[in-house]
Amino acid sequence: MKLNNYSISIEEIYNLLQAQNLRIPAGAIDTPGGKINVNVPESFESLEDIENIIIAASERGIVRLKDVANVYFGEDDDAKKIYSKGKNAVVLAAYFKTKNNVVLIGDEIDDAILKTKNSASADLDIDKITFQPEDVKLALDDFILNLFEGIIFVIVIVLIGMGIRNALIVSVSLPLTIFASFCFMYIFKIDLQQISIAGLIMAVGMVVDNSIVVTDAVQMRLNEGLPNNQAALEGVMESAVPVFTSTLTTVAALATLFVLPGEAGEFIKTMPVVIIAALLFSYAVSIFVVPVFAAMFFRTNTKLDNYDSKTRLIFSNLLSAAFSRKKLSAILVFGIFFLSVATAVLVLPLEIFPYTDKNYLYVDVVNSKKGDIKSTYELTKDIESLLGDEKAIESIFTCVGGYFPKYYLTSAIGSDSADFSQLIVKFNLKNDKAFGKDKQEFMMHIQNKLNENITGAQITAKLLAITAPGSDIEILISGNERTNLVEKANMIKDELMNIEGLYNVTSSYAKNRQEYSIDVDNSIASVMGLTKYDIQRQVNIALSGINASVLNLDDNEYDIVLKSNIASISDLENFKIKSTATGNKIMLKQAADVTLSAAEPSAQRYNKSPVIKVTAEVSKGYSAQMAQNKIEKIINLNYSDDDIDFEFGGEKQTLSKYLKGLGIAAAISLAVIFVILMIQFSSLFQPLIIMISVPLSVIGSIFGLWIFDQPFSFTAGLGLLSLIGIVVNNAILLLEYINRARRDGLTIDEACKSSVKRRFRPIMLTTITTVVGLVPLALSASSFFTPMAVALMTGLMVSTLLTLIVVPMFYSMVEK
């Protein structure tokens, strides 16, 4: 250590480097032509300038920096580094301002990338880790295609069910409503994105329902012999109120989606807005536009009044059977409902939010060797090598020493750390048929492979999720008595490791790690003129290094880092400290003892108390809720302690939060719908009869999710909530006709059976159009929208079929 041989200290070298390269305004000189500034330029223009700085003078001559130090260009060994394809890389991250067209900006970025590639050397690779403009364009193309598919499907169904003439009139409502909805979105600045387009797709099948009901009423009046204009007028007068009521109930159910909590409510807020706007426009079109065309072009068509069709006869027979055994039928319906609820609780997997549809997973690596970035790099290289054998993996991007910049809406960001690395893995399961389309199975395969082959690190592989990342199970253990807290945390960690289906069980408690302590002998240090500041400051610069100045070279700026070459504890002990009081230099070991001791880890705090977090992930095929129920039971039985508090987080609590939000929204929706129905029917019991259709929809949705292997997720819950307002529509129209038939003199049972026959076609047609309109969304294979579409479709189909039997049956029971 050459510096020990000279009287200057490492701190003084730092001060000289700073002073030699400062830019200080020198002032100005008055001249006949005015003031002229005086400038003293910075001194460092090359490495030689730095090497030749005079740092001391003695009888033997002057001492330059190069006499005591090596000056060279080098990489910062402790800095965060990015790698791709085994080469050093730089990551550029850009974020879009709101209200910008990301697709157009993406085209400009692509042009800039192409120009850079053409002008750069051949060995320069430019790869996109994630590129939102491409994702947005593909998603919009798919959703717009789904929208047009839905429109075509609906028109075809209307053609089959109503004939060409009537179908063309009804179909007028589709383009008018969709156009009005686009205008509404433009005026209120609702972007054309996945959620808003999904709202339009959901609305496609619904917006023709009002027109179907109105035109059916007009057609019935025509078939009774009324003139066209009178038939249109009476058809509108007959339908306006029940159609408006059914529209209001759907709007009421959708409006409650605005009360959903957190980022979930924010995420889907444009969907109900778009659907509500489309429904209100469709009502206006059905009342003010469609009847005009119907009066102009409709003709008598008795084929549509065929009450003896096979399908109607089947329902007529089922209705007669239900009426003959009303109590047994009611018990059977409630039994099926409770069976569906049991299926939801016991069989259906629960999921908060699904993973994204992107083919990315990320691997977080926490090295057990704290603060050793070289070890972390070697460990990460081993992981890259293992992943390189996977046929499905197309590219790997690696960041050693910290996190990547935020590359997705929900990707985690954190501070740099020498013992942390992150890999972003882009894959395509078409390249490896072993996993089919199951991304979660592929992720578990990667996790297991890394667990089996890599030691000395905590490794977590995860897919990108729609919400912020977090562990499936989280337990916060807090208490004031540290020893007891650590003991309980370790015991609970062991319990988690013994529960089947859990992996990556971790604890935030860091074991005591070793550190060297410099114990200064104050009496000796005082005699030698050393202060603790002298020791702390000079040792800190020597070991940690310090940015002393900058070198500007060829339009690039380089930090000048001052650091010693101490490589062992003996080097540290022999390192000479200069006294600022006397100017003498003394070896560190002469005034202090350097000893190895255990360092107490810093404690995290929660509500002002020390806390340890124990976390775990849940394997595919296992339930996070059931696993947490099990650990909660174990803790309550074996680890209950007045001095220790346990708080649970993770998937169960998040799911509970959002299901609670859905429950509140459903309760508000039911209450508002009940009030609307009570106003229309001026009755307390008839709205209750109509509300029976809601649990009937639950039957269909639950069994639909089970049959189509979909989880009961937050989005499936959205489908169920939306159903509340949709399924009552059929019951409203049915009861309206039953009441009218009774006023015409029919008995209760005759009125019920007659109304089912008369309303069968429009009820079935409106249901089929709504269901068919959702088919593209259900077939989109979207992890977000498919469960919602399945819940809506199956719930609506089953509810409609049962409504035609159960609602008249309960009406008869109540009214009699």
Automatic annotation (TrEMBL):
Transmembrane regions listed in the UniProt entry: 143-160, 167-188, 194-218, 239-261, 273-298, 328-350, 662-681, 688-708, 714-735, 763-785, 791-811
Organism classification: unclassified sequences, metagenomes, ecological metagenomes
Protein's gene: swrC_5
GO terms for cellular component: plasma membrane
GO molecular function: xenobiotic transmembrane transporter activity
Parts forming coiled coils: none
One Pfam family of this chain: ACR_tran
PANTHER family reported for this sequence: CATION EFFLUX SYSTEM PROTEIN (PTHR32063:SF18), PTHR32063
Protein name: Swarming motility protein SwrC
